[in-house]
Specification:
The chain contains 5 helices and 20 strands. By secondary structure, the protein is mostly beta strands.
Length: about 260
């Protein structure tokens, strides 16, 4: 089952994706907190605006340097432990929303990533119980002000500026993430072509490790790292990220 968040005249609503009829089945509330009860309303997918499937109430936790080939292309060292950083919920945007280049950066990069959505409060989760706390999976673009990242020891500004965390288009509740293709395209040209099986630390290890650092709450999002092939984009460029079974996340970079 896949969940989307869509824009209706009454405001943003969650909906089940019904691909057999090309419709959204509108839900009565937030499915993470209120379940999957429907209102009976059906909305055609065509011409319906899709929003970010989740706006984290608490945090986005991102993992750096989790693919060996990406570490090599960046000239970095493999971290002894997962390298963690935060992106604020104000960085989140949805499909087809614009990434806005900050006036203080001249080098914006894309990073295609598989994202995990947490479904329940948890702390110190054993690896064998990680599946119990995951709500589903979606696509993320860990947009980065690369020049600022190089210049500053902390990555908060480079990784956390407004619009730097596109998410979507859906959350898949039944997804198997162990070996799926992760690709990015810039203006239709393939740039990244990796697989989740190439992660240094897979999803269950990451979620367990992160939960031992701090509590995870429903709606928190974890970004699991990016494959090789990252690069820069300029205003007017469109980045499309495809992950098997999760669809395509597309966003254009625009100047301020």
């Amino acid at each position: 089952m896949q969940i989307a968040r869509i824009s209706l005249e009454s405001g943003p609503r969650y909906a089940i994706v019904d691909r057999d009829t090309d419709e959204y089945v509108v839900l009565a509330g937030d499915p993470i907190f209120q379940g999957l009860d429907t209102t009976g309303q059906r909305v055609p997918m065509r011409n319906t605006r899709v929003l970010s499937p989740i706006i984290p109430r608490s945090k986005v936790v991102a993992v750096g340097r989790n693919y060996a080939a990406h570490i090599e292309e960046m000239g970095s060292a493999t971290p002894e432990n997962p390298l963690l950083f935060f992106k604020p919920n104000t960085s989140v945007i949805g499909p087809d929303d614009a990434i806005i280049q900050p006036a203080w950066s001249n080098e914006i990069s894309y990073e295609a990533e598989l994202a995990v959505v947490i479904g329940r409060p948890c702390k110190d989760v054993p690896i064998e119980r990680v599946d119990d706390v995951i709500y589903g999976y979606t696509i993320a673009n860990d947009v980065t002000a690369r020049d600022v990242q190089r210049a500053e020891e902390q990555w908060a500004r480079a990784k956390g500026f407004d619009t730097s965390c596109p998410l979507g288009p859906v959350i898949d509740l039944d997804y198997e993430p162990s070996d799926v293709a992760i690709r990015s395209y810039v203006n239709g040209e393939l740039r990244q072509d990796g697989r989740s099986s190439q992660m240094i630390r897979p999803v269950n290890e990451l979620v367990s490790y992160i939960s031992h650092a701090f509590s995870l709450l429903p709606g928190d999002v974890i970004l699991t790292g990016t494959p090789a092939g990252v690069g820069t984009i300029v205003p007017g460029d469109t980045v499309e990220i495809e992950i098997d079974g999760l669809g395509t996340l597309s966003n254009e970079l625009r100047s301020t």
